[in-house]
Protein: Thiol-disulfide isomerase/thioredoxin
Amino acid sequence: MLSLSLGPIALPVAPLVLLGAVWGTSFLAARLARKGEDAAQGEVAGNTVFHAALFGLLAARLAYLFIHADAYLASPLSALDVRDGGWYAPAGLVAGLAWLAWRSLRWPRLKKTWLVSSLAGVSVWWLASTAVGLAGSPSIPAVELAELEGGKAITLSQAAQGRPLVVNLWATWCAPCRVEMPMLAAAQQREAAVGFLFVNQGETQAAVQTYLRKEGLPLREVLLDSGSKLGEAIGSRGIPVTLFYDAQGRQVDAHFGILNAAALESRLRRHRPSR
Structure:
């Protein structure tokens, strides 16, 4: 599952899971530390968990930027665009736990509280993230689509032709889709060994053709999903969604929301066939 729909709004599930785990950890730490009427100690315990989460997020982002420095140096402002999903979780986890360990030196009475609450919080976050991942489709869904030109029925597996695959779910009315589309179109032109499929959600052939012609986008391999069945199959009602499959049809990455060029390049490096 990639997104959660609340009426007309679709929210990414991964940040919601993380936020829930942090809040639960903070609440547990505050309750364990609040002995008798010592509300101040409970407040310190809970706030320290939130601070650990903030330090962890900062470390996770900086570590990701360091690992993919050359991609982000090409467009430095992309480093500020946290919507791209660029986080290195191990660095964040280490930084957060290190902050709790340092605070335990000043508040030794809370050491056990932070140990128990952090173990519980990390466990809940890991289990929830695993469950969310399993709720999606680990391989290319067997959804029948139609080619934009000619209307011939085709599945993603047939369109993949044994290539590593980037699948973008989009629509002409979706503002984030329109923002990232020129970047994805350029990547399709550039990446000879990786297939890029653009699967339109719920619109007519005429509407899609008119949009592409008006915007001057030289897209190849545009497919129509008139019933929006692919989004349902992968666990996302919202768009844009970008999926990454290896040459065997296994899903290796997925992103809900807008992608920038640096984030796409960092994923393609793990996705391109080895030479």
Remarks:
- The first helix runs from residue 13 to 33.
